[in-house]
Amino acid sequence: MGLQRFERRLERLVEGTFSKAFRSGGLQPVEIGRRVGREMDAGRTLGVRGTVAPNRFTIWLSRDDLERFAGFHEALARELADAAREHGRDEGYHFEGLIEVSLVLDEQAKRGALRVDAEIVGGGAGTTSTLVLPDGGRVALGDDPTIIGRTPDCAIPLSDPQVSRHHAEVRREDFGFRVVDLGSTNGTQVNGVVVKEHSLRDGDVIVVGATALRYQES
């Protein structure tokens, strides 16, 4: 089911954002996406937090195909990474670092040929986690709990009557961050599900009252 959603997302992109670039025949983003999804599934392994999947994908393409994607490399890589992240979330995978997709030249490859290398790569010391606010602002997460609530002393103060004074907090755990509801009146949701506490993955959406906050690793 997760791979089907992954393919449908890429099909929508080809029909929309990249429609002009991919009208002609040849290698299509959906073909690349299928291979990324399969390599993610094939490379998964059991880790401390559950199933850990590859997060770095190197896509080797012929010169003809790479030139055909010229001008769209970054956008295509970004969309493939977003679709891969969604697939991982559907399957319940965890990642050791950011999902990265690179399109590179294979001098020996013929047009239409495709090879994908998938690796599990840690985030390293430079990885940071933030909560992205509705206006695009960001609040960095650290060792101290980040409290979300209605009072001015909260790290993320919200003037929302549906939000409790101290509604929820995001706290560091051994392998990332966890959101914890602080006994709020209206509850806390993650990806549309009411939770008491939840270990966060890149891209998760936390909703308190009428406010949505996106957890992001970068």
Q: How is the main sheet built?
A: 6 strands, antiparallel
Structural class: alpha+beta
Global morphology: elongated
Q: In which order are the strands of the major sheet placed?
A: 7-6-16-15-12-13
The helicity comes to 10-25%
Summed up, the helix count is 4
How far apart are the termini?
28 Å
Q: What is the gyration radius calculated from CA atoms?
A: 20 Å
How is this fold's topology laid out?
Layout (H helix, E strand, L loop, with lengths): L1 H14 L13 H14 L2 E3 L2 E3 L3 E6 L1 H6 L4 H19 L8 E6 L8 E6 L9 E4 L5 E3 L5 E4 L6 E2 L10 E6 L2 E6 L6 E3 L2 E3 L1 E3 L5 E4 L2 E7 L1
Parallel strand pairs: 3-4, 8-9
Antiparallel strand pairs: 1-2, 3-5, 6-7, 6-16, 8-10, 10-11, 11-14, 12-13, 12-15, 15-16
Helix pairs in contact: 1-2, 1-4, 2-4
Features of this protein?
single chain, 218 residues, alpha+beta, 4 helices, 16 strands
Task: Give structural notes.
With 218 residues, the chain is α+β, with helices and mostly antiparallel strands. The chain contains four helices and 16 strands. It has helices at 2-15, 29-42, 63-68, 73-91, and strands spanning 45-47, 50-52, 56-61, 100-105, 114-119, 129-132, 138-140, 146-149, 156-157, 168-173, 176-181, 188-190, 193-195, 197-199, 205-208, 211-217. A hairpin with a 5-residue loop joins strand 6 (129-132) and strand 7. The two termini are 28 Å apart.
Structure summary:
This protein has 218 residues and is of the alpha+beta class. It has helices at residues 2-15, 29-42, 63-68, 73-91; strands at 45-47, 50-52, 56-61, 100-105, 114-119, 129-132, 138-140, 146-149, 156-157, 168-173, 176-181, 188-190, 193-195, 197-199, 205-208, 211-217. Helix content is 24%, strand content 32%.
